[in-house]
Design goal:
heterodimer, A: about 525 residues, B: alpha+beta, seven-stranded mixed sheet
Chain lengths: ~525, ~500
């Protein structure tokens, strides 16, 4: 329990969100760093019932607090690259795809698409090279998990990339990093170089083709690409455009990347967390992975907790725990004992949940979908009662207006319009009709664009309008009051213009506009 | 590999289309209107304007027709409430930051934003915020950019990437600040630049040459053909109320020029107005046709007559020359010459021919003459030429040493030309007969690929010229009339007396 020694800054609000891959006291008591695999993963007799609680200790974030966790020496000491060595050139690639498919691993980037299924969609026999593109352009507001995987445990990702490339038959993997991740880039780059020096990456990796076990030669190149700071480059096809050297415009689907992606070749795009998880799933097997989580969302996931909680940070937990457990147990409850008002559950683009919905929500793909929101990237932002919802939505819209790539009309124009109207609301200039207008713009943006950025901007607006309409209406009333005051003041006091014209000397403009001189 | 034909249904109408088409192409080819801005049949698919929404059975919401591949038994609807709703919302988004400066915009009258706004848009605006104002720029010698009007359909960017291959343009900034801009240090000065003006569906890219010249609804259009090179682009000529050419734009012909045209051809028209040979000239002075024809026929009656025709003449002119020479000029030689060319200018999607003659092939077919070989042979020959009937018609002709050599050893030159060209200074031009430009006459040109293309006059003649066909017809009739007269004269007593 290396991370347990870390002092807990609970209660001190101004401490920056130190990352804690924490476990609950109960899990600590169980004491086993790696729980023994359970042979029967679930009880099929009662599917509605939650699975028996299996103690969980972090997997992906297990070593992030250990000094030098990013080096090969540290990674090798904990059995690093042994999984890749034992599988590459030995296990048939199809078996690995089946293993990942059976494990039920779902994409951790936001959409939650089953990873094994995605791999099986890969176009075969095209004669073109197959590429793996790993998405590390983590820019969804409220999400900061991949950063820790890249900075603290990059070898875990490289091993996952080796296994994935072997499984899908790719000889070249691209890892696309957000431009701002300077440390992450340095460490990942160093990790790839270290792996290259050891022969884990490059020609004939792990000595395949010459180690006397009749294994075929396996070559792999890993290229680390840095972005230039655009949210849209985290969209899978936008990222591919950016890797190709173009403007980060998302591409029309179909064709999907698995058929025609990077440089027109079949490409698999996965998130950093997904690929990191592949390493462990291949190592421990399907049953091990399925002992946590729900029927449709098996396994574990990293959540990024931020906002009005005592202990914000990244927490790796089994899927299917309740939102309340996340906030109260892991997050240490609400900051300063305030009341919870709302939660944005899966990154900024996920529709907001009210306090009542939070009580019902569990952290898995299905539960949040049934509440009209989504698990997304796992960025949980907690809003307390002091938060001004109008200000929050204005800030949200400002972000999407700034980040819309400008390719499709509804998003290019709609994000700006939403920002401008919410800006008016924020500055006490919103009127009754504007609430309907906001809803209408958001509705017109949804599902009408190449990528989902328009939806990502429209969904929070629709969510806020649906659940916090009262806040908007209150603001309209306040505006009406302020305007009435303003009119009254203007009637009883001379306007600024009059004062300038009469008092502050001749000014052609003011005199002209006032209609009379002196 | 043959493309499979599949049956699909568009608005309950069953049609059969190749399976590699997109829905928008299937609709357009079957006469069903689908609005579009970014889609262009000769460019790659961008799918960004989002107005070509159609319904596809089984799809949860409207899809963009330009990017939707055809599948067997697909059922497409181009009308319906949700589709109208989608198009209406896209039109609204298009217009919120548009300056609505139609009264001073060159595109007004032929603007997709206007047209689709009437057909698909809302009747009032709901946008009360400040509009985004974008920059204005000069893209090149012939193209200007009005950023605020731009809808960022990227047709122009794709054109410079795919057709001209010059890659001058790109998109800068993000979101509703997006603008089209030149790459640093580049100018859009390639000879295909003005096609971007044509394909711009709004008034963002405008032609510097046409800018503020006229409102487009005052223009009268006529179909024509460009004679500037051997490609033979199909064109539409736009004329103002006075009948002057204001601009030339390409007309679609997939076999010849698709929908493109070079700037040289587009801007070639001023020669129609400039320095025209208005009336026949006799010894350098204006003269009536009757006298000019008489002088010409007298000269042609001399010995050693050579007819020299340029490759700028129509098939009909060549046929008239051939017939006239065979009938009335026994023993006369027929030769041809061409406007000196230069190297082809090849672009990824279009080639401007270096052969600056529209009808070299036609001359070959009808007169059996290779223009260059023929002129060389004639220049090399040292025999004196009594009368040279020069059918010229080449605008902006630069004298070649070969033609000069021919003129130098010619006694009398009879010139048929549409302009007071430099040829009048060379040699002894006894008679100059005014002809018509290809905008003013009809005829047929055979282009470099051997495709014969007929064209009609686009405008009234500027001068008192006659086409070559009419001219030779007149001359022939004059000869016949003279013969009849002579015969009649011989039959009279006076004539008989004179004979005796």
């Amino acid at each position: 329990m290396s991370d347990a020694s870390k002092p807990n800054p609970a209660g001190s609000g101004d401490v920056p969100p130190v990352k804690k891959a924490d476990e609950s006291a109960a899990q600590k008591a169980a004491g086993a760093p790696q729980p023994a695999p359970v042979s029967a993963p679930a009880v099929p007799a009662a599917p509605a019932e939650p699975k028996p609680k299996v103690p969980f200790s972090p997997v992906l974030l297990k070593h992030i607090h250990e000094p030098g966790s990013h080096t090969l020496a540290h990674y090798a000491a904990r059995g690093g690259y042994e999984t890749a060595r034992s599988h590459v050139g030995v296990t048939p690639p199809g078996d690995l795809i089946k293993l990942v498919d059976d494990s039920g691993l779902r994409g951790r980037g936001g959409a939650g698409f089953p990873t094994g299924k995605k791999w099986s969609f890969l176009a075969k026999g095209t004669g073109k090279p197959i590429y793996l593109a790993i998405n590390g352009d983590e820019s969804e507001p409220g999400t900061f998990k991949d950063r820790y995987l890249l900075e603290k445990d990059p070898h875990q990702l490289v091993e996952g990339a080796i296994l994935t490339c072997y499984a899908i038959g790719s000889k070249h993997a691209f890892i696309y990093l957000r431009g701002e991740f300077i440390l992450g880039f340095q460490r990942l780059h160093a990790a790839v170089e270290e792996a290259k020096a050891k022969g884990y990456v490059g020609k004939k990796i792990f000595g395949t083709g010459s180690r006397g076990d009749a294994s075929p030669e396996v070559d792999l190149t890993i290229t680390v690409v840095r972005g230039a700071g655009a949210y849209i480059c985290g969209e899978e096809t936008g990222m591919l455009s950016s890797i190709e050297g173009g403007r980060g415009y998302p591409k029309i689907k179909p064709p999907f990347p698995a058929v025609s992606g990077l440089f027109g070749c079949p490409t698999i795009v996965n998130n950093v967390e997904t690929i990191s998880a592949v390493t462990h799933i291949v190592k421990h097997g399907v049953a091990w992975h399925k002992q946590w989580g729900t029927e449709k969302s098996p396994g574990f996931k990293i959540f990024c907790l931020s906002g009005a909680v005592r202990k914000p940070g990244v927490y790796e937990v089994p899927l299917g725990i309740t939102m309340r457990e996340m906030i109260d147990t892991y997050g240490g409850g609400m900051k300063d004992g305030r009341k919870l008002k709302a939660v944005i559950p899966g990154g900024l683009s996920a529709p907001v949940l009210t306090a009542e919905m939070v009580d019902k929500a569990t952290l898995d793909y299905e539960s949040l979908a049934s509440l009209g929101s989504m698990l997304g990237s796992g960025g949980i932002t907690v809003l307390d009662e002091q938060v001004d919802m109008i200000s929050t939505i204005y800030n949200t819209m400002r972000f999407y207006h700034h980040e819309s790539c400008g390719q499709c009309t509804p998003c290019r124009e709609g994000t700006g319009w939403l920002e401008k109207v919410s800006h008016r609301f924020h500055h006490n200039q919103g009127h009754q009709g504007d609430i309907e207008l906001l809803g209408d713009i958001a509705k017109n943006m949804r599902g009408r664009t190449i990528c989902v950025l328009a939806d990502a901007a429209a969904m929070p607006m629709q969510g806020f309008l649906q659940h916090f309409r009262k806040d908007f209406e209150a603001k309209v009333k306040e505006t009406a009051f302020v305007e009435k005051q303003r009119t009254y003041r203007d009637e009883i006091t001379p306007t600024a213009k009059t004062i300038t014209a009469t008092g502050a000397g001749p000014s052609a403009l003011d005199v002209g506009s006032n209609g009379s001189k002196g | 590999m043959s493309i499979k034909e599949v049956k699909i249904k568009i608005d309950d109408k069953e049609v059969t289309v190749p399976s590699n088409w997109t829905v928008i192409k299937a609709c357009h080819e079957n006469g069903i209107e689908v609005p579009h801005y970014c889609y262009h049949p000769d460019l790659s698919i961008a799918g960004n304007c989002r107005i070509c929404m159609v319904g596809v059975k089984g799809a949860p919401r409207p899809v963009v027709a330009c990017a939707q591949p055809i599948t067997e038994n697909m059922e497409v609807t181009t009308k319906g409430k949700d589709i109208e709703e989608a198009r209406k919302s896209v039109m609204e988004f298009m217009l919120i930051n548009h300056p609505l400066d139609c009264p001073e915009c060159d595109q007004a009258g032929e603007c997709r934003l206007q047209n689709y706004s009437y057909t698909y848009g809302r009747d009032h605006g709901r946008f009360h915020e400040e509009k985004v104002v974008k920059s204005k720029a000069t893209m090149g010698p012939h193209v200007k950019y009005w950023g605020s009007r731009c809808i960022v359909c990227t047709r122009c960017v794709r054109f410079t990437d795919e057709v001209s291959g010059t890659g001058d343009l790109g998109v800068i900034y993000r979101g509703d600040r997006s603008e089209i801009a030149l790459f640093p240090g580049k100018t859009m000065d390639n000879p295909l630049s003005m096609n971007t003006v044509d394909i711009c569906p709004v008034g963002a890219l405008v032609s510097s040459d046409f800018l503020f010249q006229t409102r487009v609804w005052n223009l009268k259009s006529a179909e024509s053909m460009c004679s500037d090179c051997a490609v033979g682009c199909n064109t539409r000529v736009d004329l103002d109320a006075k009948g002057n050419i204001k601009r030339i734009v390409p007309r679609r012909n997939d076999k010849v020029n698709k929908e493109w045209m070079c700037d040289y051809g587009r801007l070639s028209f001023p020669y129609v107005q400039e320095n025209r040979l208005m009336k026949p000239l006799l010894e350098g002075k204006d003269a009536p046709y009757k006298d000019a024809r008489k002088a010409a026929l007298e000269a042609l009656a001399k010995k050693n007559v050579v007819v020299l025709a340029s490759a700028w003449n129509t098939n009909q002119a060549f046929a008239a020359i051939k017939e006239f020479a065979e009938t009335h000029l026994p023993g006369a030689g027929i030769a041809g010459y061409a406007n000196p060319g230069r190297a082809d200018e090849a672009f990824p999607g279009f080639t401007i021919s270096g052969d600056k003659n529209p009808n070299r092939k036609g001359m070959q077919e009808i007169l059996g003459i290779d223009a260059d070989v023929s002129l060389k042979e004639l220049a090399a020959d040292s025999a004196r030429i009594g009368t040279l009937l020069l059918v010229h018609n080449i605008p902006g002709y630069a004298m070649t040493p070969e033609l000069k050599a021919v003129l130098d050893r010619t006694e009398t030159v009879i010139l048929m030309d549409h302009a007071k060209s430099d040829l009048l200074k060379y040699g002894n031009v006894a008679v100059a007969l005014p002809t018509l430009t290809s905008f003013e006459k009809s005829g047929t040109f055979v282009n470099k690929d051997g495709i014969p293309q007929h064209f009609q006059p686009a405008m009234e003649p500027v001068n008192f010229g006659r086409s070559e066909v009419e001219m030779f017809h007149d001359l022939g009739r004059e000869i016949a009339a003279a013969a009849v007269q002579a015969a009649a004269h011989a039959a009279t007593p006076a004539g008989a007396k004179a004979k005796a």
